[in-house]
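It is worth pausing here to work through a concrete case rather than discussing structure prediction in the abstract. The textbook approach is simple: state the sequence, then state the predicted structure, then interpret. We follow exactly that order.
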Amino acid sequence: MLSLPPQGYAGTERIVTTLAVELHARGHDVTVFAPGDSDLPCRVVPTVPRALWATGVRGTPEEGLRAAAIMALERRGRFDVIHSHVDTPGFPMARVSDVPMVTTLHGRLDTAPTMDRIEAYRDVPLIAISESQRRWHPNANWVATIHHGLDFGATPFAADPAGDYLALVGRVSPEKGIGEAIEVARRTGLRLVVAAKVHEEHEHELFAEIVQPAIADGIVDWRGEVSGVERDLILAGATATLMLGAWPEPFGLVAIESLATGTPVIARRSGAYPEIIGHGATGFLIDDLDEAVLAVSRVGALDRRTVASTTRTRFSKDRMVSQYEDAYRSLVRAWGRRDLGGRRATSPASAGRPSAAEATPVG
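Step two, the predicted structure:
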């Protein structure tokens, strides 16, 4: 759907970009299946000429995701490992591939049709992005749980918030807690700076119903969909970032983006947030809006330098990519194929194969 690296709102695409760029930097021969207007240092095989969202297409068409997985499968002879990020539409290809094809699942796994598909394809190798995400499928073929990591080299740090406001970054949807965040801002008397995507019809409807009136009342400072640089500056300047949606967030990339700037996160005690946020150390885990209001009054006591340093270590790109390398090697051994040969491309290339070719289909 998006070119790599993504320019605006994105989660999965940022992780795929980070993984591909770092694997390439480590000497692996990486091929990424992505829109043709992607700009990566490794080989890109176009799935479509341009990113679909750039052409006005909305939603996530399964046929496009499935086609990307098929393209990777057709070229499987070039690869040691195929790494799919296209969710369950790639499962049929993973089942028939004679090259290890592992899928990182980026969404929730407790609803139909995803839940049924995981049960039907228990043999397909899977990687979870949190322990919370995988808990409903103990009998699936889990290879690893790997928390997301990012490159924080250019992430700003703010020892003191520059602005007296709360932040919400993401998309306008009930899962992201937009209504709850507006209510907390109203009750605390702080502005709520919202940098969010509004693409789908239901997002436009919620914007008109909840966000627009709050803008008119002066509660919400609306920024819309912003670049990565602007997003980081908004997060760094906030008193706290709110993530109050009452759903099992599989990870919550905005949480580590905020924490890396030093800005604490106040989040619902659900999904992966307890795996990310240290209650009373890097933020607060809350159960209702009364607790969220209380947390806002206490974030000033947290050491923002500790918040940033802890997060940048725990959720670094180096840690994430090293864990994926371990997962790839484990898969190759399980398939009875040769090992990946470490991080050097020279030795395996002499045998006529890529070092750790990762085909990453992206719709």
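Step three, interpretation. The first helix runs from residue 12 to 25. The CA atoms of residues 260 and 311 lie 6 Å apart.
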